[in-house]
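**Backbone shape codes:**
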Amino acid sequence: MLHLRCVVVGKGHPFSVTIASNASVRELKTKVFGENLHMTTSVADDLQLYRVDGLEEGDDGQVLHHGNFVDMTRASLSGFGDDKTNMPATSYLSRWFNTAEVAAGQIHVVVSSVDDMGDQTRWTELNDVLPRRKALQHRGVDSAAISDVSWSDVRAVFDKYTIKQEFPRQAIPAQAMDALDMYLKMIAMSFGPIDARSSDVTTRKYFITPIFLHVASAAGANMVLDEEVRGMRVRVHGRLDFVLVCGVTRICLVQPTDGDMTQAMADVLLACEAVADAEDAAVVYGIATDCLSWVFVKRERSHILTAEMSVQVGDDRHLPPESVQRVAETIHAMLMVMNK
């Protein structure tokens, strides 16, 4: 029998698996999957197993690579370089280990999910381009504030994964839309109609917030205010004015502070990555808006879907109900699609 110590990329705590020495790697995958590790994948075959030379477990349970501490909650496979070797599912463990070689203190198997690889690749690429001069110690680790990262810093990375696509809509009861239209007109009477050139950030927020509130109410969602987001493996952190929460769905909401929608894009995309990392979420939604321009984001492991929408001020200088309805129904679909 082999007594193997294993560790999962992104989890960090080594665990033991006992298995026959003549078993296959596929059988080891099944054993690993059965350890109730809350893997992001739903089937054992989606796990990838690696032998990594020089990987050991310290006396305090820390993971060491050639004697250097490795934070496995933030590590990626690329960090092990040429020391890692993939163990094909059809191969036998006797090819990789024998009883004499399986020494105490050694970590024998590194586990990764196929689904995680897209995350790890993108996070590694982002970490490489985050401004080093702006990376500060945040809760003991190097982390860049989202607000300090410009669109030019990260555009090349995000452009590689972004696909433009029309987003679905889900109807909202007419009574709720009528109430929203009345509320927006009341705000326009109090603050003056929204203007593409002169309306400031605070004024725009008074128009944006009720749209989110009415949709959240229709979907049975909660709006969380002043939410902190912090990645573990993607090294960014920040605070969001709003996060919409409905079951497993998270929507990160960003309003540009200076009218720069490209900067808002950087903010919302990084926020989505941080939430996906911290919560092991396969899908995170995001919205960047100044009320008249809307960018919708669906962040997935392998790619990022985006859609744009504009709200044109009507002749009466109010927000047209049909334009607001398109926006509201898009947000409603985001909240409901994963919670049916």
